[in-house]
Write the structure tokens for this entry.
Amino acid sequence: MPKLKVPAVKKNLDKMIDFVTDGLNELDIKEKDKYISKIRLACEEALVNIISYAYEEEIGQVEIAYSYNEANNEFKIELTDAGTAFNPLEKPDPDTSLPLEEREIGGLGIFMIKKIMDKVSYKREDGKNTLKMIKILNSEA
Amino acid sequence: MSDKLEYSIQENQGKVEVSLSGYLDATNAGDLLEELKQLSDKEIEEIKFLVSELEYIASAGVRVIIFAKQKIGRDVSVTLVSPQEEVVDVIKMSGLDGFLNIED
């Protein structure tokens, strides 16, 4: 499972996302560009969340790992940080039926992750948060 | 990749055109937002985002569009002109498609 561990700061966002999308780009699958764009978005939203909220004063690390299981076409991404316990999946979805004037700004990123990925789960273990996101690469992109 | 978004903003008698090309994401949406905030004290009736060259938009970019509607003026008409499929997908996912004009 390829892994990258870097300080969780916005300056590293592109490096973190490219690590995953470069890995995806090496796979021999159909409609790759479409998946890359969607997975880029899910990774950005999840990583921005970690960069913004996981660590308070000190700069902490985030570990990014991905793998592809050819048997079931699952592309799995795991993001792990040692910051404040926080389950983003508990955040209520934004009400996307409200007119723009009444929209709340928060929560949209997590909502997008849930829409894009086929399975998303969170665990807190040994003082670490891990967000696991799976996209099945033969499903609708 | 600090050059991954190019933008220009033109205002003429209450009509604003914002041209965007490249990637609008969390690393650069804040800069664009700051620029648009300068329009808040003007009488703006229409904002067109010219996005045919915009390849990618994340929630940070969607927030810029929501801001345009919320803060620049409630009656302002907001239009996306010639968005690529990826951008339309994100706009729909965010439930913005019913509240914006989308032109080919």
